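seq:
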Amino acid sequence: MELEDLKSEWKSIGPQIEKASKENPDRSGIYSRADVRTRLFRRVFFSLMITIICGGLVVSSGLWASVLFPVPWLVAFGICVIAGAFAEVRMLKLIKDINLWKMSLSEVFDVTLRIKRYYKRIELIFSILFGVLIGWLSFLPPFGQNGRMVVTWIVLAVAMAIEYVWYKRNMGLINRLADTE
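struct:
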């Protein structure tokens, strides 16, 4: 009896299935969106371009700025910017190496966690490096004789502490994700 009911139900919805399959639904919204990998790749690439442009502006500041930065500081800053650009290029390579069609879900998850850990590490390292550079700048002649540099040091110390706490929190979340695997 149940088999006959199932056959009759199937026959009654048959025309609706055919009608739905012949219709051409608007799927442009589905196909126009980029996948997460592509969006992340674009975001890191955009970050790399901003790094290069801003680094070039600071290094060439002697041509357009009213306050001249000392040459040793500019060299150190330029080295940090170049190292940051290389770190972002490595991250682009890590993202580009993700192959959703050949990798298992577990492998994609592991690679994603590795990328997140790498990103958080370079974020912390370069925050500290640029903090040290700003601190070093406060001792140099054009900026060091200013009483407001105490405020700069206080803000710098608070910002570094917040960055470290944020790093520890995010790494804890990432490690918790890795442990659930």
